[in-house]
């Protein structure tokens, strides 16, 4: 096995309660690097087309990357891959903290869960020894209660990733939470874990991570960390966290308000980064090996929830429970965030589902009888927190909201699909593409559905900052849809896909170049890995992910924005009057497919492209 890998994967047969150890496929690792790339290869090969995401044929795959757990900057990340119960296609979630390094140091690169357990279990791994343990005592408990109980069962300090009640109740956007507050949040993979009756993974170990050239790797990592320590961006993120972008997005006119009916928030100063620092911030929190402490340790100091503490909210959470619901009460936003962490919920999808329900209620599409007497009005801060409780328990109207906006709109009808703010079933993050049109292309081409960090083209548009990991990330005018700039989306998708594969944080792609990461990967693995290998690896993985989606029926027609963004102009602010016309989006897609080498009619990777990337075995499936 290559250096930087542990060389072993755990395969857990849940129906039989049997655990086997198998070698990590070295050939697959070199093709797909690790992390989300390697996990996707296992998913494609082992999960049949049309498998029920919550059924026994789906597999839940945890995977670290070659940099995970090393001293390279922010090498904390791990990925989880399965068929998503929210979107029905390739599902991927990624998280930081310390769980990824702990899993790897326990002796394994990853875990593949198969089938459904007859009873609740958790997987314990200590120094290469794995066992399934009874989790019945904590079935129904929150994430924090589960972690406390598991720690009490072992004299060894364990690092835990767990689901809460939301995962057990099969909320379609349930998250997996590690370190109590860090979420592998998107695509509902916590529901897949709940369907398999796996409550948690707890791991510990001291297994060394062998590097091909330890001295060169450490020298390279130190240079990069020294550089990062001098960066103004580090100072900004440490001071204000991810919510620092709230004012930037609002001033561009792309801050979603009242379910994306507006793009500027009149009470932005009550929910922005400065407000968060003034009202709830206690400390900065960093992930493993991270020189930038962008996490927020927080505490509610006043009001009905005074004394509650935890981490966050991050930018997306602050918007989705805030302006998107018409709420400017930071205490309520913070409390909703805490409860999502403890119940195991994706805050983007939860907040978006609440905002959608509020608009449906105000338009008379969702009735008071259907809500159980609740008045779902924009601006009701207490209601937002209450609805998070109901979603996690699937109680009352929460049972409907637990389905996500796509299924909600299908059930409610009344034209509500026009303002159900998702792409392919995944709720959109808090950047309105009417104010930066290239970001709309990024939403529709992201493989897991509406997502910002697949390409993160929001950075050069809303934040006015280049992404150094690609040669050119410049967008000349965010208000103008320039098909030539579709190449920026392609390049950023490919580059950031590598980060998900090697176990690095994408924020490092803002401040470090591809050459920086080539040096780390080559000295860690011993592979002959150059700049072109970096680019080709990202492209290969991205095409494999697209193939997973194509196999489940995705084609050009589903690469589409909600009608609101294409037909309803923003009413005010710097982007007043802006939409992304359907023809404009189609022209951008055509340019994008051209740069990708995909079929223009279907959006499917062509046989020529698959052959170029060494993916010949996919051709018969696609064509």
Could you give the topology of this structure?
Layout: E1 8-13, E2 18-23, H1 26-32, H2 35-46, E3 59-64, E4 78-83, E5 90-95, H3 99-105, E6 110-114, E7 121-126, E8 129-134, H4 143-152, E9 159-162, H5 165-168, E10 176-178, E11 182-184, H6 189-195, E12 198-204, H7 214-229, H8 232-240, H9 245-252, H10 273-279, E13 281-285, E14 295-299, E15 309-311, H11 315-320, H12 330-343, H13 347-362, H14 381-393, H15 398-401, H16 405-412, E16 422-423, E17 426-427, H17 437-445, H18 458-461, H19 486-502, H20 508-511, H21 514-525, H22 531-551, H23 563-567, H24 582-596, H25 607-612, H26 619-622
Parallel strand pairs: 1-6, 7-12
Antiparallel strand pairs: 1-2, 3-4, 3-6, 4-5, 7-8, 9-10, 9-12, 10-11, 13-14, 14-15, 16-17
Helix pairs in contact: 1-2, 2-19, 2-22, 7-21, 12-14, 17-24, 19-22, 19-24
Question: How would you describe this structure to a colleague?
Answer:
The protein has three domains: 8-204, Aldehyde Ferredoxin Oxidoreductase,  A, domain 1 (4-Layer Sandwich); 251-426, Aldehyde Ferredoxin Oxidoreductase Protein, subunit A, domain 2 (Orthogonal Bundle); 436-622, Aldehyde Ferredoxin Oxidoreductase Protein, subunit A, domain 3 (Orthogonal Bundle), CATH 1.10.599. Helix 7 runs antiparallel to helix 21 and helix 19 packs across helix 22. A hairpin with a 2-residue loop joins strand 7 (121-126) and strand 8. 39% of the residues lie in helices and 13% in strands. The strands form four sheets. The chain has a six-stranded mixed β-sheet, with helices on both faces. The chain has a six-stranded mixed β-sheet with strand order 8-7-12-9-10-11. It has a three-stranded antiparallel β-sheet with strand order 13-14-15. The chain is built from 26 helices and 17 strands. The mean pLDDT is 96.
């Amino acid at each position: 096995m290559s250096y930087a890998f542990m060389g072993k994967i755990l395969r857990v047969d849940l129906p039989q309660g049997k655990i086997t150890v198998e070698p990590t496929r070295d050939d697959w690792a070199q093709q797909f690097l690790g992390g989300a790339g390697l996990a996707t290869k296992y998913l494609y090969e082992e999960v049949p087309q049309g498998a029920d995401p919550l059924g026994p044929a789906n597999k839940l795959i945890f995977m670290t990357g070659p940099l995970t757990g090393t001293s390279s900057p922010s090498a904390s990340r791990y990925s989880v891959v399965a068929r998503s119960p929210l979107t029905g296609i390739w599902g991927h979630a990624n998280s930081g903290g310390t769980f990824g390094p702990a899993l790897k140091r326990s002796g394994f690169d990853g875990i593949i869960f198969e089938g459904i357990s007859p009873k609740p279990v958790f997987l314990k791994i200590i120094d290469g020894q794995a066992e399934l343990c009874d989790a019945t005592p904590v079935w129904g408990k929150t994430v924090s209660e589960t972690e406390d109980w598991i720690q009490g069962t072992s004299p060894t300090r364990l690092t835990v990733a767990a689901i809460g009640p939301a995962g057990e109740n099969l909320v379609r956007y349930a998250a997996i939470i590690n370190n109590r507050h860090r979420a592998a949040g998107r695509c509902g993979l916590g529901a897949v874990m709940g369907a398999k009756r796996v409550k948690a993974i707890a791991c510990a170990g001291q297994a060394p991570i062998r590097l091909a050239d330890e001295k060169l790797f450490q020298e390279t990592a130190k240079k990069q960390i020294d550089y990062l320590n001098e960066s103004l961006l580090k100072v900004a993120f440490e001071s204000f966290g991810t919510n620092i972008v709230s004012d930037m997005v609002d001033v561009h006119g792309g801050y979603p308000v009242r379910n994306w009916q507006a793009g500027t928030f009149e009470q932005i100063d009550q929910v922005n980064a400065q407000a968060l620092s003034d009202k709830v911030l206690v400390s900065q929190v960093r992930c493993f090996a991270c020189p930038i402490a962008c996490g927020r340790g927080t505490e509610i100091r006043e009001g009905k929830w005074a004394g509650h503490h935890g981490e966050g909210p991050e930018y997306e959470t602050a918007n989705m429970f805030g302006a998107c619901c018409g709420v400017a009460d930071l205490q309520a936003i913070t409390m909703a965030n805490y409860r999502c962490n403890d119940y195991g919920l994706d805050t983007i999808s939860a907040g978006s589902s609440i905002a959608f329900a509020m608009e449906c209620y105000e338009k008379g599409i969702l009735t008071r009888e259907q809500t159980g007497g609740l008045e779902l009005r924009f601006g009701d801060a207490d209601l937002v927190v209450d609805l998070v409780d109901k979603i996690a328990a699937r109680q009352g109207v929460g049972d409907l909201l637990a389905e996500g906006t796509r299924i909600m709109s299908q059930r409610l009808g009344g034209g509500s699909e026009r303002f159900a703010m998702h792409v392919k079933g995944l709720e959109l993050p808090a950047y309105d593409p009417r104010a930066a049109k290239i970001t709309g292309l990024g939403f529709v081409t992201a493989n897991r559905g509406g997502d910002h960090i697949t390409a993160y083209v929001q950075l050069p548009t809303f934040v006015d900052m280049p992404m150094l990991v690609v040669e050119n990330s410049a967008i000349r005018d965010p208000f103008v849809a320039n098909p030539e700039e579709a190449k920026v989306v392609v390049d950023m998708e490919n580059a950031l896909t590598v980060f998900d594969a090697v176990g690095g944080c994408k924020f490092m792609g803002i401040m470090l170049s591809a050459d920086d990461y080539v040096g780390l990967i080559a000295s860690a693995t011993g592979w002959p890995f150059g700049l072109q290998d970096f680019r080709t690896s990202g492209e290969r993985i991205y095409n494999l992910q697209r193939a997973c989606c194509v196999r489940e029926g995705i084609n050009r027609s589903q690469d589409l924005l909600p009608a609101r963004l294409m037909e309803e102009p923003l009413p005010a602010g710097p982007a007043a009057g802006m939409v992304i016309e359907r023809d404009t989006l189609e022209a951008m897609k055509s340019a994008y497919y051209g740069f990708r080498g995909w079929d223009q009619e279907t959006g499917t990777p062509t046989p020529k492209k698959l052959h170029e990337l060494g993916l010949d075995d996919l051709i018969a499936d696609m064509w």
